[in-house]
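Running log. JK asked me to keep both predictions on one page so they can be read side by side. First protein, sequence followed by its tokens:
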Amino acid sequence: MRSIWNGAISFGLVSIPIKLVNATENHSIHFRQIHLADGGRIRYRKVCELDEEEVSGGEIGKAYEDADGTMIPITDEDLAQLPLPTAKTIEIVAFVPADEIDPLQMDAAYYLSANGVPAAKPYTLLREALKRSNKVAVAKYALRGRERLGMLRVVDDVIAMHGLLWPDEIRAPEGVAPDSDVTVRDAELDLADALMDTLGEVDMDSLHDDYREAVEELIAAKASGEAVQPSESKDSGGGKVIDLIAALESSVRAAKKSRGEGEGEGEAESEEDMADVHPIKKKTRQKSTPQKSTGTKKSTASTPRKTTQKKSTSKPTSSAASSKGTSSANAAKKQTSSGSRSTTKKKTATPRKRASA
């Protein structure tokens, strides 16, 4: 990787020669401006306001515009004469716990590479000291014409530096929070916790820019002359007042479905909703005593066990079946009027002797 700055880390009286390398890269797709009429490229030219003539880069300098519009020229020599101790030095000023750095201050990220063999020993010393202390180093450095604030930490076996905004560059969040008092119920918090647990963790390496990929596919399709089919836009429901509980419950179900959890339950519910439920008819009712012999449905329902026991022992003749049906009807009537089991047994005992005779 190409270095963008050479200097040294000032660690007390220890000086560590280093190279500054960009730790990030921009993958955004950049577009050019064109003239819609003929497709010609639109370019910006640097023109002097006084003579309206285009000027080259070598003729352009710096100036500070005063409140009344007066331009005060500032040359590179003027800036070089300023007492800037961090012009070529990353000066460590303190070591603090990492949680004391506000993430809002985070800016660009860089890798610090040891510059030369003599720098390997002090570089390794600082890296291991940062690891063992579980702290980060706060430093000041100069880059691109201004002094900046930085944070040094260890990434794998490399010292990384994050550019930090100065504390007075962080705006206070005044007027950003909701104006009205909002009360959140415990049930809503419970569902929010359930949604957080369902979403769980994610492998950061698996995340990618879907929009950039779609733009690349669009460019490739138009370059090859293919017709571009408009994609259906999904309504995100932004700006709509919704039932928060219902939305959280739906989100939990959707999160579980996307992670393959609860698929069996969902399928069972869907099958139950679509299927028609019918009562199961027992085969013993189909083989019960004919209705002609009983005369009523009540007698058939009251003696299914007795008919089943008879069929399991022997095959009755037609006369026996008729007498048994008559006895069953009499037993049902007697049981309704008296409500006594003993009476029913006496009444049913007589027809059994007749059937055997």
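And the second, directly underneath as requested:
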Amino acid sequence: MRTNRKTALGTVAVLAVAATVTAGCERGASTGAVPLPPAPAKTVCPSALAEAGRAVQQAEKTDSAWNGPTSGPTAVPGKNIVYVAQTMTNPGVAGTAKGVREAAKAIGWSVRVIDGQGTPAGIQAAFGQAVTLRPSGIVIGGFDPHLTSQQVAKAGADHIPLIGWHAVDSPGPSRNPELFSNITTKVQDVARISADWIITHSHGDAGVVMFTDASIPFARNKSELIKKELATCSGVRLLTEENIPISDTSSRTPQEVSSLLSRFGEKWTHSIAINDVYFADAAPALRAARRKGAGPPFNIGAGDGDPSAFQRIDSGQFQAATVPEPLSEQGWQIVDEFNRAFSDAPASGYVVPVHIATAANSGGLTAWDPRGYRAAYLKIWGK
């Protein structure tokens, strides 16, 4: 047992040194890079810390080659798509819609976006309007299709294919609800790597506040998975879980953050949120409390990596990391999946790998935009 513990601690030390060297000399590194907090005198979870460190190091790489589809049907002409958005104030939903527009222009289709305004009634009305338009296909952008079961059934009766973005828990085709495909990273991977970042960054010693939206099944499941991974290190303590609907973040988050600062003080060292938007609204309260932007609580967003999150990270302003979705790439994948549906071909089955963006590896960019996908899809479509 003593030999195994020594080996694990040695692995952690090597990873910590490697991370420090990488942060200091990587091309494009920002002066806003968030420093690691001091390591505790004794590591209480050496095995979990070593495993988390390896996973984080892999996820921070930015030079991976395109590993998505390279074959499929050529472009079907003259199609029109409606993107039904949960709310366009959700940066992930809006970023994916932008990618769909860009890809549709490249393939020669038209796109219309209808904003559900973040309420059940608004989403149902938006979906109903989309079905009435009788488009070639409808995107379910960031909401639970069971909320619009009547509209989903009507689309099915009208033979309108549906593709989701963060609509259900798992990527790929869905039988119930009936989706040709659902585009998302694996929620298990996103939850695990974001929790692993906290374990690694804190050296296994953290007091964590979680922000979530329990009204969205996808987000609720992500939160449970995050808690499960945090629990692999006994030195990481979940102080509280704050349930704030994404549509209410601007009105509720600042007040909640002020209350959390009073409740937990210095015990609050790290935060994790199911969406980066929480930290945009937390920043004013943290600033008012005279907290340093590059100091605790160190914040990581478990999705979606919108431009403002990258800006906060790069400038060291109350966010240290994000697990970004490649929103533009996923918009292009949505268009490619529709082209497969229109051609009676199966879904591609492609799932993008998780990535962690920090000031050390973002290169000053404001989005995670992997290389190679545009050229690959254009080649598939014959464009």
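Observation for JK regarding the second prediction: The chain has twelve helices and eleven strands.
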